[in-house]
Amino acid sequence: MRRHLLSAAEVSRDDALLILDTARELSQLADRPIRKLPTLRGRTVVSLFCEVSPDSARTRISFEAAAKRLSADVISYSAGGTGGAREERRESLRDTALTLEALGADAVVVRHGAAGAPHRLAGWMTGSVVNAGDGEHEHPTQALADACTIRHRLGRVDGLRVAIVGDVLHSPVARSGAWLLRTLGAEVTLVAPPPLLAGAVAGAVPGAVPGWPCEVSDDLDAALPKADVVMMLPRREPAPGHSRGYVLDAGRLAALQEHAIVLHPGPVNRGTELTAGVADSPRSAIAEQVSNGVSVRMAVLYLLLGGSEERP
Ligand code: CP
Fold it and tell me: Residue 1: what pLDDT?
């Protein structure tokens, strides 16, 4: 394992499988009466969430639950709302890094509105940095949670066809998902209205790498029957060209293969990306994505801080 987890594009197949296998073992903890291991006792994990939207809570609570289940000391640097307290006082990221070093942070889990902020932080920290979402750039642990869920439901990722549908232009989940699932051997297709596809594929997204490892299509109805996994993305307003033509409803659910599953990273906007009936159907693995999210984040913290003998 590397010292940091900054980008799904940088995760090797071996490391991805190590994280997923470790997550599978750690997930068994959820069935025990006491859901806690002493592995990271005495280690400090800082949760630094700045410049995030008010409804952005899932990743923070998932990481905090993961760190606590491994007995780490968790310090939350989040002030809620649209900006962390230090950001509002305009403290530079460099000064925040100095503060976190002085606090003795062994790991910093960072969500930031700016693409590349976790990479900059990693350059100043002696501890590990985990990217919990940097603007519209990457969200590697969501991609790991999604891969974990696909493996659990369908037994493998290798050779599967995954359609990532919706606002791909603004989605760090789409970018990290495309990279990680491709690394694990899936065939990924981005499905979106032409204006969103054109922006994403041209690399117009801030921090974009040129060229995604995937196919593109603007025809959802053509993509669905071929897909083993359909990942719907949260829709931002306004999303150019996004319309009912890209909503997963009961009719479209019926067009899926019998084994195919539906994912959504949240927040779910029922009736906007998918109907309530689809979100609640047996095909939906949305709740499993949340619980698997805790397991993969436990695995990441465990491997970065306690479980790997081969840190560079
Ligand atoms: N899935 C996800 O990243 O949700 P949050 O923005 O609420 O963390």
Answer: 82
